[in-house]
Design brief:
Arc Repressor Mutant, subunit A; SH3 type barrels; elongated
Length: about 220
C-alpha cells in the first residue's frame, strides 16, 4: 500500500469519527483536493486490495483490514503531533501538517517507543483520540486502572500518565511517574486522592488528575 492509498484510509476514518459512514465519494474528493473521477479510481484500487467496501450512490466503508491500517496511520500521526507540539513548540495546526508527512516514515517499533516516551497519551493536541496499537494482542488482560479507583491502604505502581505536558512535569517532580510506587492514604467519592509517593512528601491530587494517572496494584506489601 502506498502513501496515497493510506491518505484515503485516514480520511475515511476521520469522517467516521465525525459520524459519517458510509463516506460519500464527493466528501473524499473534497477533503483530498482531487477530482471525483480520481477518487473513484483510487476507490476501485482500495476495494481490489480488500481495504474498503464501496456501495454505489452511498459511499465507502473500511473493511476490517482497512480499519486496522487506518488506525495504525492515525496513531502514528497523532503521536507525532503530541511530540511536535509538546516538545518542539509547534502550534497544533503546524504539528498536524508535519505529522501527516511523518506518519508514513516510521516503523511500528519506533512509534511504540515514541508512545512510551510521551507517557502513552490518549488524545492529540487537538483533542482527537489516539487509536490503540492495532497489532497488540487483543486477549492480553488489562490490569491497569485509574488512580481514582484505588482504595485507601493499597500500594500501587504507576504504569502511565495521560495528562498534558505541564501537568505531567508537575507530577514527575512530585514523585509520580511511570514505575514509581505510591501509598494510597485516602480516596474521596469524587476521585480526589491523597497519596504518598515513595521518597516524596504527601500529595493531594484533584479528581481530573487522579482519573488520568493509571496504576497497577503492587505485589509488594505496604
Amino acid at each position: 500500500m502506498n502513501d496515497s492509498q493510506g491518505m484515503y484510509l485516514v480520511v475515511i476514518a476521520q469522517a467516521n469519527e465525525d459520524g459519517i459512514n458510509p463516506v460519500p465519494v464527493n466528501h473524499l474528493a473534497e477533503r483530498l483536493k482531487v477530482q471525483p473521477v480520481s477518487a473513484n479510481q483510487m476507490i476501485k484500487k482500495l476495494e481490489e486490495n480488500n481495504l474498503i467496501c464501496y456501495t454505489p450512490y452511498k459511499g465507502v466503508e473500511l473493511s476490517p483490514t482497512g480499519r486496522c491500517e487506518a488506525a495504525r496511520l492515525l496513531r502514528n500521526r497523532r503521536l507525532w503531533e503530541v511530540f511536535l507540539v509538546e516538545h518542539l513548540a509547534y502550534s497544533p495546526l503546524e504539528g498536524e501538517t508535519i505529522a501527516c508527512q511523518l506518519e508514513h516514515m516510521v516503523t511500528d517499533e519506533m512509534i511504540e517507543k515514541l508512545s512510551s516516551f510521551l507517557g502513552t497519551p490518549r488524545t492529540s493536541p487537538q483533542g482527537k483520540p489516539i487509536p490503540t496499537n492495532p497489532i497488540a494482542q487483543p486477549d492480553k488482560p488489562v490490569l491497569d486502572a485509574p488512580l481514582s479507583m484505588s482504595n485507601a491502604g493499597e500500594k500501587v505502581i504507576v504504569t502511565s500518565i495521560h495528562t498534558a505536558e505541564t501537568e505531567r512535569r508537575f507530577l514527575n517532580h512530585s514523585g509520580v511517574m511511570a514505575g514509581s510506587t505510591l501509598q494510597i492514604l485516602a480516596v474521596q467519592s469524587n476521585g480526589t486522592c491523597l497519596i504518598r509517593p515513595e521518597g516524596f512528601p504527601i500529595l493531594q491530587l484533584a479528581p481530573w488528575i487522579s482519573h488520568a494517572v493509571f496504576v497497577r496494584l503492587s505485589t509488594v506489601e505496604a
